[in-house]
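Q: I'm teaching a short session on how sequence maps to structure, and I want students to see two examples side by side rather than one. Could you give me a first protein with its sequence written out and its structure tokens following it? Keep the formatting plain so it prints cleanly on a handout.
A: Of course. Example one:
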Amino acid sequence: MSEHLIVGGGIIGLLTARYLSQAGASVTLLERRQVGRESSWAGGGILSPLYPWRYAEPVNALAHWSQQHYRALADQLQADTGVDPEWIQSGLLILDRDESSRATAWAEKTGARLDIIDGDTLGRIEPTVGEHPAGGLLFPEFAQIRNPCLLKALRQDVQARGVRITESAEVSHLLHENGRIRGVGTADGGSIAAERVVIACGAWSASLLRELGQSIDVTPVRGQMLLYRGEPELLKHVVLHRGHYAIPRRDGRLLFGSTMEDVGFDKTVTEQARHELERA
């Protein structure tokens, strides 16, 4: 029996496994398919809400705390595993000047550095974005991380610490005993006992928590993106305009996103989304 059983092998599940194992706990992690291949894999890796002033204070507080720790985490993972999670302080360049007043108020309230740049400056620091005479809003301290690299590093790290990972293990229900959770039942009819169970399976968490009388408003949203091969430094900043973004990776790849589609767990890619993103 493990002390801790983690349901879900995304970034949250893997980080939970990392810190529990660092504290000396025995940990087992279950993933319904492949570790790190759901929403954690598919995200763009921007370490901030896109328009943070549109979000509630607790979201921004969590984002701020995470931003303070991500670089050290990435450095330590690279030192321990040899895998570079590619934390890059690329900054966030927003071309929506109609957001200026809200962005300025938010920056003054939170202490975030904000540079309001004119069209000439924009053309000099990011010539590939085309002409934007009104300039833009630059948050130079915002950073990104490359999700697949982070997930690879985390998996290697937790396995080296003795965490047991079981894939293709779909949890169907929780095991109750004397008013406590004592493990989980799996879709194939099996059961796994544990002293404590951590539910970290994203949009799949709701069905398990419902057993405990807990209701959480978490639903899946499909986001499609385009990936292009380019030259390194072709784009220097993460660029955001009218809800769509471009993310430059260290090797020159450019990631463009994203749609937001309420289609449940359907991960099908569509030509309609491709055309939408190409127009953007």
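Q: Perfect. Now a second example for contrast.
A: Example two:
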Amino acid sequence: MPMGIIVSRFPGVTRWATEIWKPSGLIPGADIAHWVELRTEGDITLFHARTLSLDLYRSDVEAYRVALSMDIPSAFVIMDEDDSGESPGGWGVSDVTLSPYEAQDLLDSGFSLVEPVPIPPVVISWAQQFVDHHFVEEPFKKRKRDRLNVDQTDEGIGDLRVSQGSDVYLSPASLRKRKKH
């Protein structure tokens, strides 16, 4: 589904950051746009930064279910530094995802800005239908520990002074040396 990303520009609160750029909304079914100014109210300006495709995958259905069950159902907008200079704030919108697991992975990398954005009701119903159709509850399987035989003698690496039946690290030449002693 094509998804327009709205990015807000706020005035900075310190002398080192004169502007703050933050994803603030989604436009479902938006046409292609590139940093089109939508509205200015006082010091805040809203831009239609980019239109990306929001794709859903069956393998991520559990993650979508988590996103839809949040207090405020959210999609996650990923912004990376724009080295090309095409974006006005130095940050370009690179992706949008409904998976909080993918968003967490990108946050762990430390290279991207990842912001949650509320999902419009149309997208919530579309994603909920997808989840209802593809989600399969997997029963919990408790893993059992392997039973370790404590009475077993370990025939592996050993002391050269003690003759053993097998040693996985011995070479044939060292076996010949042992027999001579």
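Q: What should students look for in example two?
A: Point them to this: The chain has one domain: 2-134. Also worth mentioning: Strands lie at 2-11, 19-28, 34-41, 44-53, 74-81, 91-97, 113-118.
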